[in-house]
UniProtKB/TrEMBL annotation:
Protein name in UniProt: Aggregation factor core
Source organism per UniProt: Marinomonas primoryensis
Stretch forming the signal peptide: 1-22
Keywords per UniProt: Signal
Amino acid sequence: MLNVRLPIVASVCLLAGQLAHANVEVTFVESAPKDRFILHNTSQCALNDLTVHLDLSNSVGRLIFDTTATGAGVEVFQPFEVKKGNLKLISASEVKDGDSTLSLSIENIAANDSVSFTIDVDDTLTQSELGNIRVSGSEISNALIKITTKGQQTSAAMFDNKGKALVSLPSC
């Protein structure tokens, strides 16, 4: 009887492992003077060799990155800075003031762990909920986050009105 159960249990465990989905929850946190983007791996498997593309151009608040004292941003500015994890900017050597996109390379995110970076984000609306130097969750709505895995599969999600986006990646 025991010999019959072992293959069944092993098959069920193998099948469950194959069906594990990898999700990344991306959160925008408005904070003065630095805004924060957190990418949290909510899956039970490590994610390796990811490329992340963040595009604010279709956001409700017409958001931009404010990285220098002069240019398109308003008052307070902050350049791109890694806060946690093995990630680096790959779209350019730096994010330029007024840019609305950036791309990152993430070496790895352990299961149920996160990586993060800070940068200043401003809206460009003539009338905005919190003024141009602070961004509400609703102003980041419709911004796009795309993640490409090392297998070259790309998944995307749009931010909601609470500053969150859930990217469903292929099974791990």
